[in-house]
Design a protein that fits this description.
heterodimer, A: mainly alpha, Four Helix Bundle (Hemerythrin (Met), subunit A), 6 helices, 68% helix, 0% strand, globular, B: mainly alpha, two-stranded antiparallel ribbon, 2 strands, 2% strand, NADH_UbQ_OxRdtase_su1/FPO (chain B), NADH-quinone oxidoreductase subunit H (chain B), ubiquinone (chain B), quinone binding (chain B), NAD (chain B)
Chain lengths: 185, 343
């Protein structure tokens, strides 16, 4: 393998792993969120390196941009930077370590006991991940899951609005809401 | 395979873009002060050099010698990183804007764009969505209530207006059938998209003003109520970086807008390009892009001098209840018309 290619994937992979570990270890919620942003951006760069620019930029825009900004917004708004040291649910740490050991064991066992030899993944055509190609797949082959996802997100939005709405007669705040506009519901 | 010559070409083109943007930043500050002064019946800076042309240099030297303070209780790491995180997206966002077709120098033809990727608009969306972090983190890490409020306002505002901004991009994409900036410019050969997409243009204009926190949407740094907002605690070169990011974002937004809606580097007067001596002035090229950017910047400064800052709840209402639905309707109507017209 080309040394440059190895270097790019090595650095990106290390960034992904280090930021993921930092996310879990950090005791400051804001730093945890920032580690997750770094993680998302690094994964996006991996997609880019693998020849999927559309997915890469969508990942950065949606996850690293919009969603994580909202997380940081809430953390800043609530002043909830410092996480509790004791966990409300006991035994999670032991369970986590156990699962990691099982996962690593699985990988090692697969490598040792595999029946087919490791081989290079066949190259995909250049147009495979183009925006037009993804659009065709989304709106033809995967139309039903796509629409179902959209519907679930819509339901979640409506639910969030309903939950945050106050019960009973709403008092109009001066200057913000005009008294003659009734709140429907 | 990538050759060394190609890498050098990319490096030099990137350097030119960064130098033009930073040099442009220095002179846009002077431009703004001069135009504002004229609008307010003043003279403006005129002492440093002829017509005050050395004023940006004087300002820069002053800022270098200023003391840099870090407030007690600030988060030192993020306090230092925030200006850097703010400036880098502003510097890299224009990488996909074409300045022209190509030029022949010393018998070799060079393209006048750094790269022509087929997801250029998504790249712009991704970079702008990242640029919120610098401001939000600057506000939080300063350990100052005004700064934190400014950071919160900036975050809420930029998230809200990013939707309208993204929807305003869809019109030119649909009309072109491509997300490449070069294709979008070429599609405007006959008619600029401002005439085919007036609603999209107005949306982009308003949303981009909000996205770069310019008046009348400069709530994050409202002097009268937040002292200066997110950069209240910054001084010296760290402050200069925020200042730089704001002006470079203005230039970047003007370049993106001019490319999407005003024909980019295309000249509206190509029929005059056959003239002797001055013919090149009427041919398409980077100078037309710069002219359009200068006009766009003038408009932004004009708006700042004219309109008062709008109230925060009105800002949110405008973003969510007017601009977002308008953007959706614009996308649906554009798509329907294109399908019906058989485009």
């Amino acid at each position: 393998m080309d040394i440059g290619v190895l270097l790019v994937y090595g650095i990106l992979g290390l960034t992904v792993i280090v930021s993921a570990v930092g996310l879990i270890v950090s005791r400051n919620a804001l730093y945890s969120a920032l580690f997750l942003v770094v993680n998302f951006v690094a994964v996006g760069l991996l997609y880019l390196a693998l020849g999927a620019p559309f997915i890469a930029f969508a990942q950065v825009t949606v996850y690293a941009g919009s969603i994580m900004v909202l997380f940081i917004f809430v953390i800043m708004l609530l002043g909830a930077e410092n996480l509790m040291l004791d966990e409300p649910l006991r035994g999670q740490r032991a369970l986590g370590i156990l699962l990691v050991v099982i996962f690593l064991a699985e990988i090692v066992l697969y490598y040792l006991l595999r029946t087919t030899p490791l081989q290079a993944i066949p190259a995909i055509p250049q147009t495979f991940a183009s925006p037009a190609e993804i659009g065709m797949l989304l709106f033809n082959r995967y139309l039903l899951p796509f629409e179902v996802t959209a519907f679930i997100l819509l339901a979640a939005t409506v639910g969030a609005i309903l939950l945050s709405k106050h019960e009973g007669p709403t008092r109009p705040k001066p200057g913000i809401q005009k008294p003659e506009t009734p709140v429907e519901g | 395979m990538v050759t060394a010559a190609q890498i050098w070409e990319w490096v030099i083109k990137s350097l030119i873009i960064i130098l033009v943007l930073t040099g442009g930043f220095a002179y846009v500050t002077l431009y703004e002060r001069k135009v504002l002064a004229r609008i307010q019946a003043r003279v403006g800076p005129n002492r440093a050099g002829p017509f005050g042309l050395l004023q940006p240099v004087a300002d820069g030297i002053k800022l270098i010698f200023k003391e840099e303070l870090t407030p007690a209780g600030a988060d030192k790491l993020l306090f230092t990183l925030a200006p850097v995180i703010t400036v880098i997206p502003a510097l890299v966002v224009t990488a996909v804007i074409p300045w022209g077709e190509s030029v022949t120098l010393f018998g070799k033809t060079y393209t006048l764009y750094l790269t022509d990727v087929n997801v250029a608009i998504l790249y712009i969306m991704a970079v702008t969505s990242i640029s919120v972090y610098g401001i939000a983190l600057a506000g939080w890490s300063s350990n100052n209530k005004y700064a934190t409020l400014g950071g919160l306002r900036a975050t809420a505002q930029m998230i809200s207006y990013e939707l309208a901004l993204g929807l305003s991009f869809v019109g030119p994409i649909l009309l072109t059938g491509s997300m490449s900036m070069l294709e979008i410019v070429r599609a405007q050969q006959k008619l600029w998209f401002i005439f085919l997409q007036p609603a999209g243009f107005v949306l982009f204009l308003a949303a981009s003003l909000a996205e770069v926190n310019r008046a009348p949407f400069d709530m994050p740094e409202a002097e009268q109520e937040l002292t200066a907002g997110y950069h209240a605690e910054y001084s010296g070169m760290k402050f200069a970086l925020f200042f730089m990011a704001e002006y470079i974002k203005m230039i970047a937004v003007s370049m993106i807008g001019a490319t999407l809606f005003l024909g980019g580097y295309l000249s509206p007067l190509t029929m005059l390009s056959g003239l002797p001596v001055i013919g090149w002035l009427f041919a398409s090229g980077p100078h037309w892009l710069f002219l359009k950017v200068a006009l766009w910047l003038f408009f932004m400064i004009w708006v700042r001098a004219t309109l008062p800052r709008i109230r925060y709840d009105r800002l949110m209402q405008l973003g969510w209840k007017i601009m977002f639905p308008l953007g959706l309707v614009n996308v649906i109507v554009t798509a329907a018309v294109i399908v019906l017209a058989g485009g």
